[in-house]
Amino acid sequence: MAIGGFVEAPAGADYGGRVTSFVVLSCIVAGSGGILFGYDLGISGGVTSMESFLRKFFPDVYHQMKGDKDVSNYCRFDSELLTVFTSSLYIAGLVATLFASSVTRRFGRRTSILIGGTVFVIGSVFGGAAVNVYMLLLNRILLGVGLGFTNQSIPLYLSEMAPPQYRGAINNGFELCISIGILIANLINYGVEKIAGGWGWRISLSLAAVPAAFLTVGAIYLPETPSFIIQRRGGSNNVDEARLLLQRLRGTTRVQKELDDLVSATRTTTTGRPFRTILRRKYRPQLVIALLVPFFNQVTGINVINFYAPVMFRTIGLKESASLMSAVVTRVCATAANVVAMVVVDRFGRRKLFLVGGVQMILSQAMVGAVLAAKFQEHGGMEKEYAYLVLVIMCVFVAGFAWSWGPLTYLVPTEICPLEIRSAGQSVVIAVIFFVTFLIGQTFLAMLCHLKFGTFFLFGGWVCVMTLFVYFFLPETKQLPMEQMEQVWRTHWFWKRIVDEDAAGEQPREEAAGTIALSSTSTTT
Description:
Layout: H1 21-31, H2 33-47, H3 51-57, H4 59-66, H5 80-107, H6 109-128, H7 133-161, H8 167-192, H9 200-206, H10 209-220, H11 226-233, H12 236-250, H13 256-267, H14 274-277, H15 284-299, H16 302-315, H17 320-348, H18 350-375, H19 384-402, H20 405-416, H21 419-451, H22 454-473, H23 486-490, H24 495-524
């Protein structure tokens, strides 16, 4: 019996064409939205380790960090208010992404990108000008709304614009932009921390407006995707419009095969209630993967590294400047790994990257937990050599994530969902990411305080579970056109039972409907 991905995805149609400068420029502008998400992840962790920021907005945490010798090293940053600041963005993003699904489906991917970029710019102003915690929370909520729209629409846009044979590399550009955003944020935090007067955090928070403004202005000039043009505007004139756009995107006039598949996919689309449609049995594989892949993405512990890395490195004994530079080092490793993923994802496939990255993260989490258990006590510092050993292991961990679960979490759900549930499916993905990130953001500092080094063994256990899930239940999808993705479920050892049963159940209903229609015609005659 074939298990999981031992059955390769069937070869997709050869649509022809190439990667043109037009599609590259369009995807660079859209993909830059990932910088918004990455910048926020990096900035929020950096400013919450700055003494001037803590002293102004979170004085209790500042005094715990500086003065109370009886507080456990694992508990120095445990504060409900600090975690609310960090994680409030994700609840706002969760709600926003559900609204974004309807906007993306009805008005287009570009419209959602414009809305998200604009709201993000407004939120950045409140962050840079904050004089109290309430302004900081408003900043986080507006940023969350902006990210809810951009994270929902941009992966869809990239997947629909990309040629099938390069879809993995182009979609992975979104994760690369997230890494670049985190890296930029880490470098800015490292630089502004040295500003005399303690107002450097204002620069960190307000500069979030720069990538958001670039995305917003650039989105004005972006074309819509061929799928949306056909889906929402129907009629021969708009099919002709989609044909011309495809010819420009692919750099060839031989686009009829791809256009026919897009039109065929649109004819089977019901645009009324996509969230109800995705619950149908025939879409059970897509729903399960849209729920579990982003859930597993978050329980790797990656966002703990992203927005608590400086705090964590301070916890194990590094000074303020060294902790910020350590976060920069881990992000350089992640960014390099993202580039590797873009190069190999369409050659080796999604499953191999998932599995290799999973094993790498399991070993890394276990090693960090072991080092902390052996060398880091409740009170007193940690020897600098072991602190830097933890840093090296963290670099291995983020590299494993950055060429597997990081980019593939945005790629796989968008490419497996047919057009009628694609917007809803991506909203489910982003909503799960935001919800689980919120929970982890709310609980990690408390977990670190109570579970101590066991926190990393907990995350390692989750990585074991998710790696097994990929091995048994995730088929390979590389280079297969999105409009032909149904084939992978009908050849998969597990999912074919579900989709075949649904197809068998639908056929009698269709035959019955045909009989009723025929009977009605005869009666009328």
